[in-house]
Each structure stands twice: as structure tokens, then as C-alpha cells.
Amino acid sequence: MTKPRKRYEDLRSYRWYGVDDLRSFGHRSRTLQMGYSREDWAGKPVIGIVNTWSEINPCHSHFKQRAEEVKRGIWQAGGFPVEMPAISLSEPMQKPTTMLYRNLLAMECEELLRSYPCDGAVLMGGCDKTTPALLMGAASMNIPSIFVPAGPMLRGNWRGKSLGSGSDTWKYWAELKVGNITRKDWDEIEDGIARTPGTCMTMGTAPTMMSSAEALGMTLPGASAIPAADSNHARMASLTGRRIVDMVWEDLTPTDVMTEQAFENAITVVMALGGSTNAAVHLVAMAGRLGVPIDLERFDAISRRTPWLADIRPSGRFLMEDFYYAGGLPAMMSELKDKLHLDAVTVSGKTLGEDIADADVYNEEVIHRAKSPLSAEGGLATLRGNLAPDGAVIKQSACDPSLLKHTGPAVVFKDYNDMSARVDDPDLDVTKDSVLILQNAGPQGGPGMPEWGMLPIPKKILETGVRDMVRISDARMSGTSYGTCVLHVAPESFVGGPLALVKDGDMVTLDVQERILRVEITEEEMAKRKAAWTPPQRKFERGFGQIYANHITQADKGCDFDVLMGTAPTPEPEIH
Ligand code: FES
Fold this sequence. Notes:
- By secondary structure, this protein is of the alpha/beta class.
- The protein has 3 domains: 8-154 and 196-355, no CATH class; 157-192, no CATH class; 381-532, IlvD/EDD C-terminal domain-like (Glucose Oxidase, domain 1).
- 35% of the residues lie in helices and 12% in strands.
- The chain has 21 helices and 14 strands.
- The protein has helices at residues 14-18, 22-32, 38-41, 63-76, 102-115, 130-141, 167-177, 183-192, 205-216, 231-250, 254-257, 260-273, 279-289, 296-305, 320-325, 328-334, 352-355, 416-422, 459-462, 523-532, 543-551, and strands at residues 46-51, 80-85, 120-125, 145-149, 156-158, 161-163, 380-385, 388-395, 405-413, 435-438, 470-473, 485-487, 507-511, 516-519.
- The strands form 3 sheets. The protein has an 8-stranded mixed sheet. The chain has a 4-stranded parallel sheet with strand order 2-1-3-4, sandwiched between helices.
- Helix 6 links the parallel strand 3 and strand 4.
- The longest helix is centred in the middle third of the chain and has 20 residues, at 231-250.
- Residues 59, 91-92, 127-128, 165, 199-200, 204, 206 line the site of FE2/S2 (inorganic) cluster (FES).
- FE2/S2 (inorganic) cluster (FES) is lined by residues 59, 91-92, 127-128, 165, 199-200, 204, 206.
């Protein structure tokens, strides 16, 4: 696959800086205006650093400094770094959900790289949607690109107990509700659960997608698990800056790296991690940008053949800091060698097999050996049936095993507000065997498929000691959540999918082993209800929301915009 080495005249930036015309006078004089000298750029690749730092994103609060470390590496290797801020999707802050804006960041990344004189890109992300968004944008632009994962924060701490992002929030909130911990305890947990920069440190969407980026070959080997606060993280940032300059001369592009084999590697890693269900949306969307045909069936087939190895919350016991000390992703991948495409090329310029050749597991409690997995199958399963003709997903590793095969009567909430108003009502007709259903929480209905899929257990059921029930929605669920939650039901209820037609008392069957999700009503009854169904009112009359509503696809297609999918060529901007 070796390509001819690029010459300076071949670079995109040459059209801005290298030619001698009226426009290039402007480019050069305006760069000189900032105090740079011609020596700073002449003959060098321009590297765009797409930085999602923001004061409202705690997961990226170290990115201002990390961008300087990336620049150090770029200067060292003979490149010209240009930092370009992009919208920061801050999971804990943005409403209704960052998922509404993933495609906006992807578009911004792509168009920043296209409209400016970038020869290569360093992508700085990590908080949930930022990773897929930046990789989607870079894939569509297809100039040499490399990802700097934000890295997880250190373990949370409360009275000597380790606390995990999200997971322990849900757990202790339930205990507070039923009086098992005090208000003071809760306040102390709030003080201790997030105490350094970095992403969530449970195997939520952020570590899942940062690990996916590494397994895809888009980060330096071992980068994804380095805690944000560790000095190795700063060194990784500098090394990344050095590497991207070489990648430009080598013309190593995202389409060379993110191949079908690379996506299979990423899905395999997600399964072995017990990773977030959100991966089933994001990896499908990312693959769609590269013309790689990945669907939910591929996830399911890979899940069935991949052992679950990483004992990390919410499915397991440990946290990302422990995973890093146990050897990180290269160590886990070294246990999966017979399941991975080891000849896939990574941004290192070597193969995945070469990248992980020396890796080993240092703590077999945290990263299990393949011969003694936590379970023989991966963490996610894809379900189908008359309730989800286009599929749904469940994180089987985070369910109460007794609920993996279950039939019970539906308790239906027509939307999130209805659920909030009634779920703790003492008169709600619900038992521990009921199946809780949330409608109108999908891509259009939420909008943005908010992470509402871990429906709260009704208080009166919690008080009996029950901590899990079957819950079904077209929403997503935080990767830090747990429980028997069927998610991403497609098509969604807002557009008339069968989930919209379920009524209180209908019997609903979940059978994870058989991959079935079914409502026990006849086809005739389903057709009658469908004929009587009226579509809800559209949510947006103007603005980005209307663009979103006009172009968003369903969960099984990755929720990309239809106009952004595919590999049709986009012209380079004209010189003038
Ligand atoms: Fe940013 Fe979890 S909130 S990664």
C-alpha cells in the first residue's frame, strides 16, 4: 500500500502559501501579521489541530495545555501547527442531548479542514459524541488525520470507596430515594465523584469510543486508556504531533486506516470491553462515511464469537485507571489476536499486529485472559421482532441474568414528561414483572435519542429491594448505565414504529439468547392500531432543529444525516 512520498508542491497548503499570486500575498501577509516568519511555514505541512476545548466541558479541560503539547511535536517534526476551535459537546451540560449535535460537529470538522489550508489534522476529543463526530468529519475530508483521546479521569473517591462516573450516581440516587443513605452522604459523593480532568472513567461511551478509535487504528498505540492527569498523556500528545507530520508526507489517510477490517477490530474490542451500546450507533455512522457496510447483524455476529474480558463498571468491578495499569487496550487486544485483523494498518504506519506485539496483561482480575473470560460472549446483543423490525440493542453484560428471558405486561409512558410525572405514583399499576415502555424518545421524538433508556425503577418497587426490571425504549442509554434496558428500537415511535402502538397491559417478550423482542398481539390488531395512529406534531419550525429533523436517519443507520452519508467526492475549494 506504499504511496509515493509527497513533495511540498503536492500539499494542499501549497495552493495558499507556495504559489505567487494576489490571493497568496494575502495569505502570507496575514500570517506574518500574527508574528510568524516565512521560515515557520515555508516548505512545511500545515497541521490543523481541531480542538474541542471549552470552559463548559470538564472532560476536555486539559485540552488547552494538550494543544500546546501537540504543537511542540509538530514543530519538532517540521510542521506548521494551526489550532482551530470546534464546538465542544459537553455531555454533562448540553440539553436535550449532545447527540443532537454530533453531526453538526462532524460537519464543522470536515468543513474546517476543507476550507482552510490543512494538509493533516490532529483531532482532539473524547467526551462521548466528540470522538465519532471528529472521526466522521475527518473520514469525509480524508486528509491524513490522527486522534488525541482526552483520556479518562482518575477514580472517584468517597470515604475510601472508589466511585465510578454515572454508574455510582444512579446507584446512590436509588439508595437516597429509599433512605439507605443520607443527604450528607449524597453531598459528599457529589464532591468526590469527579476530581480530575478527563472523561468518565467507567466503560461509558467515552472510553468505549476512545478505545474504538484506537482499535480502528486512528490513535497512537496505547493512547486511549492513559488517564488525562498522567504525564504520559502529555507525552502522547507531543508524539501525536510528531507523527502527523510524517503521515502527511506518507499520505496515510483515514480511508487507508479505517477499512472494513479495522471496523471489525473496533467492534470486537467493544464486545470484549463490555462497551457502551452507543457504539452500535456511532460505529455504523462512521462506517457509513467510508462506504464500509457495517450493520447491526455484524455487531451481533461479532458479539457471539468474542469473549468479554474487561472487568470494568458498569458491567464489571474496576475503572479505567485500573485498566490502564493492567496494560490498557494493547494488553486486551493481545488476548484477542485470533479474533482481530492483525494486518490492519494504523496511524503508526505499522500493522496492528506490530503495534501490540510486546503488549501483555499485568492484572488478570481487570483484564481477563481469553482462556478464562468473564463470559464467552460479548457485551451487546441485537434484538428483532414485531416490536423492533429494524432492530434494537441490549447490553446483556449489564443485565440481571434472571431477566434475560422474560414476559410481562407493559406499562406505557407516552414520553419523558409522562414518565417523570407518573413513575413514582403509588397508584401506578406496576409490579416487578411489568415491562416499562418509554415512547417518543428516539432520533426525531427525543429529539436526538436522549440517554433516557435506563428508565427509573418505580419507587414502590425499589422499596421492595428490586433493582432491575425490563425496560424498553427508542432512546439511548448512557454507557455508564446498567440494567435490563432494551434500547434504540427502530423504527422509532415518533415516526409510527410499532413501539408507538403498544398499550398498557399488552404482554411483551424479551429473549436475549434467541435475540427476540416481541409484543404478543396479532398482526391484525397491530394493523388496526397503526391505522388509528396519528403522527405527533413536528418539534422544530426553524433553525438547526429543522435541518436535523429533515435529515436525521434512524438508529440502525447510525443517525447520520442522509446528506452526509456515503463517499461521493466533494470538490476542493477554488483557488480564488
Ligand atoms: Fe464527558 Fe462522560 S461526561 S465523558
